[in-house]
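Shipment paperwork, digital attachment
Item: protein structure file
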Amino acid sequence: MKYTYYTSGTCSRQIDFEIEDNIIKQVLFTGGCHGNLQGISRLVQGMPCDEAIAKLEGIRCGYKPTSCPDQLAKALKKALAK
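Attachment content:
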């Protein structure tokens, strides 16, 4: 299933991702630090959602209360709740 999540409090504006059988198939960030976000996207590809959430949730960017990885964890949690 494909999802779109609009981020809050980060440089990236949007995360488009696909989940199949609780496995992350693809992640695409819009905006933000392109190289870093490509790296995150590739690292979580093929990973179970719960594992990605556990690794990414709570990461902060500087003084911000969230980060792009944290926003991905929030997006995954929201998608799994549906």
